[in-house]
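Milestone M4 deliverable, item 7.
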Amino acid sequence: MKIYETKTAPNPRRVRMFMAEKGLLDKAEFVEIDLAKGENLTPEYRARNPMKKVPVMELDDGTYIAETMAICRYFEESYPDKPLMGTTPVDKALSEQWLRWIEWHFSMPTVMCFQHSTGYFKDRMNPIKEWGEECRGAIEEFMTFLDGHLADKDYICGDSFSAADINAFATVDFNKVNKIRIQPEQVNLKAWYDRVNERPSARV
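Output delivered:
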């Protein structure tokens, strides 16, 4: 299989971390897509993913799967050992809850802050600085929420490391481009970040 990605982007990193935790990095060929040059906008790439985003997975039978968590779901179902998205019905439901919270209230504002504050894609979109700043506030609010949530927990969802931790960790890291860092008073968030950062998957 092939995974089309941009290594510096947060969503492909989430997939690589997920695969690393399951020991699957050698199962795929990773193909770099240059977003700055618009390689994701070509007809060839749009045939893989009409949404023109990374990552996209191409299976050996020619099937294309786009969207980060759809790709992770494929690996979760295909390689159920060491589950990262819950085992019982309750665990799976809570995993879905946290994945959506992180996606909508943390990851999405992070990307919007980057795009609208930096003008990185101004050749193909209309950046609105005020919206970037609005998203910055949402990011900071969610990080404060996470800090409180982690006051008595080692991991975000349940008692073990999961996809929720992967998604939040990659988002915290990418926010460096937005000049948003874990604050000194967010000691629980910092302890969690350090814990995750010690895992080998954090190096991919």
